[in-house]
C-alpha cells in the first residue's frame, strides 16, 4: 500500500480522532507531507509483519508545542535529518522510519521524513494515540532503548542525547526542545524488525486513513459520523467502542483542573458527561461514574459537521458527540498501564474500559 | 446632540438605508439597487430614507455601513489588487511558501510574487535572527519590476513582537512611496503563521475594493452635507472607523451575515432565535444565542483560503430573490446564478427575459413589490404549478440549513428578514414558529446602525500564576485603547470577552490571552 495525496487528506481526520483531543492541529503537518509527496512521490507503507527481523527502523516525531510549530514553519526535512544523525551514531542504515505517535500531527512527521528520504514507513506506531511524553509509548514499555535520540530544529541546530534510561531521555530531550524555542524534531528508539513486531501498535497509520475516509464519506452522505467511526474501529485491533453522550458543552474549565462538562439531549437527556483532560482527553465520567480512562480514546466530534475536535477547539454551547473506543491489547497490559494508565497522569482511579459498558 | 444615526447595507443586489434616532426608533428606511460605482446606490437609498424621516442630513451624527463588497470581490475574484508577499523568518519553511493551498484562480487573480528573508522572533519575544535588511532590499527591488498594487508582511511570532514587521513596512514605504498599501499581519490575524499570512494577503488583495466602497460613501456623504463620523461593520457585528476599515478590509468580510443576524434580533426583540435572511443573491441562516452571534470554531476558509479569524457561524446558500429558475419540461430547478442588481432589468416582471424566484413569488401573490416598473401582469402566462415547485425547493433548502444550525432539540423561533424572505411559507420544519418583524427588509442596515465600536487584543504572554492578574490588567487596558482608537467614545467602553488558552505541550506557562472591548460610537 502507498500513501498518496488522497490518503494524506483522509489521514488528517483519522489522526485527529486517534489524538483523543490532543496531538496538535494537523493542517501544517499535512501541508508539509503533501509538498513532500508531491515532489518525491507516494510513500510505501510497510506492514509490521513484512519487516525482516534484522531490519533497522528509526522512528521519528515532532516534540514540543504545536502552536509554536505553526509559527516557526519547518521544512519537513528536520526529522529526516535527525534520523540520519542517529544512523551516523549507530554506523548503520535504516530500512524505514515509523511514527512514534500516530495521534495528531505526528502521524505526518514520519511520513514527511520518509518521503524526503525516499524511505518506506512502517504501518504502526508506539502509542496508538497521542501522549505528552517520549517514554509514554509501547517501545519503552516493551524494553526498547530510546537512545540515541537526535533532536533537530528548523534553524538547523542539532543535538544527540544518550542515556540508558528512557525517562531521562525525555527530560533531556524536553530541555533541548525548550532551548530550541519550544519545538524540535526527533528520531529515537532505533530498533530491529523483531522489536517492532513485539513493541509497536501495528496497523495504526492505515487505520487512521480508513477512519478519515469513513468520516469524509459520512460527511458526503450526511450520515451519522459516529456509526461509521465505531464500525471502523470494531473491525480493527481496537475493538467495539460506543457513543457516551450526545449533547451540549455546558462547562469548560481550562485553568487548574481541566475539565469539560456535557449535558445530554434527545435520547441522552438528563445525563451528564464529565471529561478530564490535560492535553488529551483522559478520564470520562458519566453521571459521576468512570466509564473510560486513558489509554482508551475519548473523542469529541462536532455535532453539526461530524469532524473530530481538539480539546482547545471546545467551546461552551457547542454541540458534540462524545465517544470512547478501546485500544489494542498491547496498550492495556499491566506494564503498559504502569507507564500510561490513569495513575501515570496523577489520577487515583484504576484503568476502566468502555468495553465493560458495551456488553451491558 | 441630536443622536440621529444612519445605517446602511451595501449588498450584492440592494443598497439599504435606515435613519434611527437616539432611542433606536426607525424613522425612515429605503432600498435602491446597488450600483457598480457604489456611490449612486448609496445616494439614492440615503436620500429616500432621509426624506422619509424628515431628519436634516446635517443632524446625522454617525453613519454605520455594512457591506459584502469585499466578500463578493474575493468570491468572484474581481477587482483584486496584485499582492506581493514578504515573509520574515528564514530558514522557516520555504517548502510551504506564501499562497500555498490557495484556489488556483484566486491565486492567479492576485498573486504578484513573494520573498522570504531572515528574521523573526521566539515565542517569548527574543529575536531568532536580526531582520536581513539587505535581502529585503533586494526583494523589494525585484518587486519593483512587478506590477504590485499592495504588499503584505508576515513575520514569525509578530503577535508577540512587532518590530521586524514594522521595520519592513518602513522599507516598503521608502521603496514604493508613503501611500503604498502595506498590510502587517500582526494587525489582523493571530497565532499560526500560514493562517495569519493568508489573512494578511487577502487583506492586501482587498485594498482597491475597500477604497472604492469607502470613496463612494465619502463622496455621497460629502455631497449631502453629512459631516458625521463614519464606521464600517466588521465580522463580529461590531464597528470600526472608516480609516480602520480601509486599512483592514478583510475584517469586514463576515459583516453582511453578522448585521442581518443582529438586525433580526433587534427587530424581533428576541435574544435566542434562528435568523433566515433571504436577500437578492444569497441567503444566510444563522443563530442568535443569548443576544450574541455564534462564531465559527477553529480555522475558517474564506473564498477557499484558510484563515484564523472568527466569522459568524452561518450557513450561506446561493439562493435569493434574483436566483435564476430553470424550467425543464414540468420540472423547475434553481440555479446558483443570480441576476443580482440587474433584477429590475432582467426579471420577467420588469419586462426582462430571465425567470427568477422573485417572478415565481410575484406570480403566486407571495411578494408585493412597490416599484412602479414592476408589473405583475407580465407574469400572467406563467405556469403557477412550476412557481410552486420552485418555492418548494427554496423551502427544502432552507429547512436543511435550519437543521444544520439549530441548537439542541427544542425548536426556536425563526425570524425571517431580507427583501425576498416573504416568499417563504408560514410554516417551516425545525422551528416552533415563523416570525416576520416589521422593517424586516432592512434588517442588515438596522444591524449596522445599532453596532458598537470594538477593539481587541490577541497576544501570547508568558506568565506565572502570580503575574496573571497584572497581565490581564495590561491586556484589558490595551483592548480598551484599541476600541477607542477604532472610534469608540472613551467613557462608554467596557470589556465584552476575555479568553485565556494555555499553550499545550510546553513546559513554560505561556498563555494566549484574547480580550475584546466595545463602546458607543464617539
Description:
The complex is a heterodimer of chains A (360) and B (522). With 360 residues, chain A is α+β, with helices and mostly antiparallel strands. Chain A folds into two domains: 2-202, CV3147-like fold (3-Layer(aba) Sandwich); 236-358, CV3147-like. Chain A has twelve helices and 19 strands. Chain A has helices at 5-18, 27-40, 66-71, 78-90, 106-117, 138-141, 166-179, 193-199, 204-221, 225-234, 334-340, 355-358; strands at residues 2-3, 43-46, 56-57, 60-64, 121-122, 124-125, 149-152, 158-161, 183-187, 191-192, 201-202, 242-253, 259-264, 272-277, 281-286, 289-293, 297-302, 308-309, 319-325. In chain A, the strands form five sheets. Chain A has an eight-stranded antiparallel β-sheet. Chain A has a four-stranded antiparallel β-sheet with strand order 4-9-7-8, sandwiched between helices. In chain A, helix 1 packs antiparallel against helix 2 (27-40) and helix 9 packs antiparallel against helix 10 (225-234). The longest helix of chain A has 18 residues, at 204-221. The mean pLDDT of chain A is 94. Among the domains of chain B are: 4-73 and 210-269, ATPase, nucleotide binding domain (Nucleotidyltransferase, domain 5); 81-205, Rossmann fold (3-Layer(aba) Sandwich); 452-519, 2-Layer Sandwich (Dna Ligase, domain 1), CATH 3.30.1490. Chain B contains 14 helices and 23 strands. A six-stranded mixed β-sheet of chain B has the order 3-2-1-4-9-10. In chain B, helix 3 links the parallel strand 5 (83-90) and strand 6. The A-B interface holds A 22, 24-25, 27-28, 31-32, 35-36, 64-68, 70-77, 132, 154-156, 174, 178, 181-182, 248, 254-255, 265-266, 279, 302, 304, 309, 311-313, 315, 317-319 and B 89, 91-96, 100-101, 120, 122-123, 128, 156-157, 191-195, 289, 294, 297-299, 306, 404-405, 407-409, 500-508, 510, 512.
Amino acid at each position: 500500500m502507498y500513501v498518496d495525496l488522497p490518503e494524506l487528506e483522509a489521514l488528517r481526520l483519522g489522526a485527529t480522532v486517534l489524538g483523543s483531543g490532543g496531538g496538535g492541529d494537523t493542517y501544517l503537518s499535512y501541508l508539509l507531507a503533501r509538498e513532500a509527496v508531491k515532489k518525491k512521490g507516494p510513500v510505501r507503507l510497510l506492514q509490521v509483519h513484512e519487516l525482516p527481523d534484522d531490519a533497522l527502523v528509526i522512528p521519528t516525531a515532532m516534540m514540543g508545542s504545536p502552536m509554536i510549530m505553526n509559527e516557526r514553519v519547518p521544512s519537513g526535512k528536520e526529522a529526516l535529518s535527525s534520523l540520519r544523525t542517529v544512523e551516523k551514531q549507530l554506523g548503520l542504515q535504516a530500512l524505514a522510519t515509523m511514527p512514534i505517535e500516530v495521534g495528531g500531527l505526528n502521524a505526518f512527521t514520519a511520513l514527511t521524513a520518509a518521503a524526503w528520504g525516499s524511505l518506506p514507513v512502517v504501518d504502526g506506531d508506539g502509542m496508538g494515540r497521542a501522549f505528552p511524553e517520549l517514554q509514554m509509548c509501547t517501545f519503552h514499555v516493551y524494553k526498547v532503548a530510546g537512545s540515541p535520540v537526535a533532536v533537530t530544529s528548523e534553524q538547523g541546530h542539532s543535538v544527540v542525547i544518550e542515556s540508558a534510561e528512557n525517562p531521562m531521555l525525555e527530560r533531556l530531550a524536553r530541555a533541548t526542545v525548550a532551548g530550541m524555542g519550544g519545538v524540535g524534531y526527533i528520531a529515537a528508539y532505533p530498533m530491529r524488525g523483531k522489536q517492532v513486531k513485539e513493541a509497536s501498535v501495528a496497523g495504526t497509520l492505515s487505520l487512521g486513513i480508513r477512519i478519515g475516509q469513513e468520516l469524509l464519506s459520512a460527511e458526503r452522505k450526511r450520515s451519522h459520523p459516529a456509526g461509521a467511526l465505531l464500525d471502523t474501529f470494531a473491525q480493527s485491533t481496537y475493538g467495539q467502542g460506543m457513543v457516551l453522550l450526545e449533547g451540549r458543552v455546558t462547562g469548560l474549565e481550562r485553568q487548574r483542573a481541566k475539565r469539560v462538562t456535557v449535558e445530554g439531549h434527545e435520547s441522552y437527556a438528563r445525563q451528564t458527561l464529565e471529561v478530564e483532560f490535560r492535553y488529551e482527553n483522559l478520564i470520562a465520567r458519566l453521571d459521576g461514574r468512570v466509564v473510560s480512562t486513558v489509554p482508551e480514546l475519548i473523542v469529541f466530534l462536532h455535532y453539526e459537521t461530524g469532524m473530530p475536535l481538539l480539546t482547545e477547539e471546545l467551546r461552551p454551547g457547542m454541540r458534540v458527540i462524545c465517544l470512547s473506543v478501546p485500544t489494542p491489547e498491547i496498550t492495556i497490559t499491566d506494564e503498559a498501564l504502569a507507564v500510561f494508565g490513569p495513575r501515570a497522569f496523577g489520577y487515583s482511579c484504576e484503568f476502566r474500559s468502555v468495553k465493560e459498558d458495551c456488553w451491558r | 446632540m441630536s443622536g440621529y444615526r444612519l445605517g446602511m447595507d451595501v449588498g450584492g443586489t440592494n443598497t439599504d438605508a435606515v435613519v434611527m434616532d437616539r432611542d433606536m426608533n426607525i424613522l425612515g428606511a429605503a432600498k435602491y439597487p446597488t450600483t457598480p460605482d457604489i456611490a449612486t446606490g448609496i445616494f439614492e437609498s440615503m436620500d429616500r430614507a432621509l426624506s422619509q424621516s424628515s431628519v436634516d442630513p446635517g443632524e446625522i451624527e454617525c453613519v454605520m455601513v455594512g457591506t459584502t463588497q469585499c466578500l463578493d470581490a474575493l468570491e468572484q475574484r474581481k477587482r483584486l489588487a496584485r499582492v506581493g508577499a514578504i515573509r520574515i523568518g528564514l530558514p522557516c519553511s520555504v517548502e510551504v511558501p506564501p499562497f500555498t493551498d490557495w484556489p488556483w484562480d484566486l491565486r492567479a487573480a492576485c498573486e504578484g510574487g513573494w520573498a522570504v528573508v531572515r528574521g523573526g522572533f521566539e515565542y517569548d519575544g527574543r529575536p531568532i535572527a536580526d531582520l536581513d535588511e539587505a535581502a529585503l532590499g533586494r526583494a523589494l527591488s525585484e518587486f519593483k519590476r512587478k506590477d504590485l498594487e499592495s504588499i503584505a508582511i508576515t513575520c514569525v511570532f509578530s503577535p508577540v513582537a512587532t518590530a521586524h514587521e514594522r521595520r519592513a513596512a518602513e522599507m516598503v514605504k521608502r521603496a514604493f512611496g508613503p501611500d503604498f498599501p502595506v498590510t502587517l499581519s500582526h494587525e489582523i490575524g493571530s497565532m499560526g503563521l500560514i493562517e495569519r499570512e493568508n489573512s494578511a494577503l487577502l487583506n492586501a488583495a482587498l485594498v482597491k475594493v475597500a477604497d472604492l466602497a469607502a470613496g463612494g460613501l465619502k463622496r455621497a456623504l460629502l455631497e449631502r452635507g453629512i459631516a458625521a463620523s463614519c464606521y464600517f461593520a466588521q465580522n463580529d457585528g461590531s464597528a470600526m472607523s472608516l480609516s480602520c476599515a480601509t486599512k483592514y478590509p478583510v475584517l469586514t468580510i463576515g459583516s453582511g451575515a453578522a448585521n442581518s443576524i443582529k438586525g433580526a434580533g433587534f427587530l424581533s426583540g428576541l435574544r435566542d432565535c434562528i435568523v433566515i435572511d433571504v436577500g437578492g443573491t444569497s441567503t444566510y441562516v444563522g443563530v442568535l444565542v443569548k443576544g450574541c452571534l455564534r462564531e465559527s470554531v477553529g480555522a475558517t476558509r474564506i473564498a477557499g483560503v484558510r484563515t484564523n479569524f472568527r466569522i459568524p457561524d452561518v450557513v450561506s446558500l446561493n439562493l435569493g430573490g434574483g436566483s435564476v429558475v430553470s424550467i425543464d419540461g414540468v420540472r423547475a430547478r434553481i440555479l446558483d446564478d443570480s441576476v443580482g442588481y440587474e433584477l429590475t432589468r432582467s426579471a420577467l416582471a420588469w419586462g426582462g427575459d430571465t425567470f427568477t424566484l422573485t417572478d415565481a413569488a410575484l406570480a403566486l401573490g407571495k411578494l408585493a413589490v412597490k416599484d412602479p416598473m414592476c408589473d405583475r401582469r407580465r407574469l400572467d402566462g406563467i405556469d403557477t404549478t412550476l412557481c410552486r415547485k420552485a418555492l418548494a425547493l427554496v423551502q427544502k433548502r432552507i429547512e436543511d440549513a435550519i437543521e444544520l444550525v439549530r441548537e439542541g432539540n427544542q425548536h426556536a423561533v425563526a425570524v425571517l428578514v431580507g427583501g425576498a424572505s416573504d416568499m417563504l411559507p408560514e410554516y417551516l420544519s425545525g422551528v416552533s414558529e415563523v416570525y416576520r418583524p416589521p422593517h424586516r427588509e432592512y434588517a442588515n442596515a438596522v444591524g449596522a446602525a445599532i453596532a458598537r465600536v470594538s477593539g481587541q487584543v490577541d497576544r501570547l504572554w508568558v506568565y506565572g500564576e502570580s503575574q496573571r492578574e497584572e497581565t490581564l490588567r495590561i491586556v484589558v487596558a490595551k483592548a480598551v485603547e484599541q476600541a477607542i482608537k477604532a472610534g469608540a467614545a472613551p467613557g462608554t467602553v467596557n470589556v465584552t470577552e476575555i479568553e485565556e488558552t494555555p499553550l499545550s505541550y510546553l513546559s513554560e506557562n505561556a498563555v494566549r490571552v484574547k480580550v475584546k472591548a466595545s463602546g458607543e460610537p464617539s
